[in-house]
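Why should sequence recovery work at all? Because a backbone constrains its sequence more than one might expect. Tight turns favour small or flexible residues, buried strands favour hydrophobic ones, and helices have their own preferences. The token representation captures these environments compactly. In the example below, the structure is given first.
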């Protein structure tokens, strides 16, 4: 993530996709030596060798411990490296779309839950509702706690059953997917057709000219 400024009272920035293994390797190769730490307290700070252990105990003179920072042996070399990294990122990396990224994650969450329910339905050897008239599988409590009504509707549309219903069961917690005991359970999930209107709106947003973020003073902060 790169912070670029403030626009309309909101912090703006760029989100880049990152291969963490490659990034870790790159950071390790480019790391600069820092033989000292700056220990920062509520009322001051003190420097000590990085090899000397320390903890978060309060200091009698400086008060509560807040954080520590590594002090590069060559600050100018660090600033030069940061400038090179930023230039390289601007030349090669393409900023991601946060809304699209979140939508992909949410779609994956819904599809994973649909596959889990279909798999559980296939595993049942006999109808298991209280009156033995239906097969039922509980929706994941984790799933139901974080999704919206629209997400639940999408989950419903992906489950391949004609007699499907979502319902709560008396004396039980949670929400259950129920299908008739004569329903064919040997099916795969249904992939919903993409919304043409939503796709057109997304394309329009993607192709719209981007506003230039308000300029701010550069204090050498890299995120």
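From this structural description, the recovered sequence reads:
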């Amino acid at each position: 993530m790169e912070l670029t400024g403030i626009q309309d009272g909101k912090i703006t920035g760029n989100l880049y996709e990152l291969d963490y293994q490659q990034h870790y390797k790159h950071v390790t190769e480019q790391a600069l030596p820092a033989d000292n730490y700056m220990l920062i307290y509520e009322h001051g700070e003190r420097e000590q060798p990085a090899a000397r252990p320390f903890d978060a105990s309060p200091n009698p003179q400086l008060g509560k411990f807040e954080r520590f920072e590594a002090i590069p042996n060559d600050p100018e070399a660090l600033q030069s490296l940061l400038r090179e990294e930023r230039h390289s990122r601007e030349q090669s990396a393409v900023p991601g779309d946060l809304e699209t990224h979140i939508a992909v994650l949410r779609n994956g969450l819904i599809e994973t839950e649909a596959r889990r329910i279909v798999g559980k339905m296939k595993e049942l050897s006999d109808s298991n509702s209280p009156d033995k008239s239906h097969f039922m599988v509980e929706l994941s409590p984790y799933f139901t706690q974080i999704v919206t009504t629209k997400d639940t509707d999408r989950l419903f549309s992906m489950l391949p059953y004609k007699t499907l219903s979502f319902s709560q069961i008396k004396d039980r917690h949670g929400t259950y997917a129920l299908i008739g005991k004569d329903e064919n359970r040997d099916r795969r999930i249904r992939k919903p057709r993409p919304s043409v209107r939503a796709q057109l709106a997304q394309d329009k947003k993607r192709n719209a000219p981007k506003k230039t973020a308000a300029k701010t003073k550069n204090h050498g902060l890299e995120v």
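A few observations help interpret the result. The beta strands are 2-7, 10-14, 36-41, 44-49, 65-71, 134-138, 165-167, 176-180.
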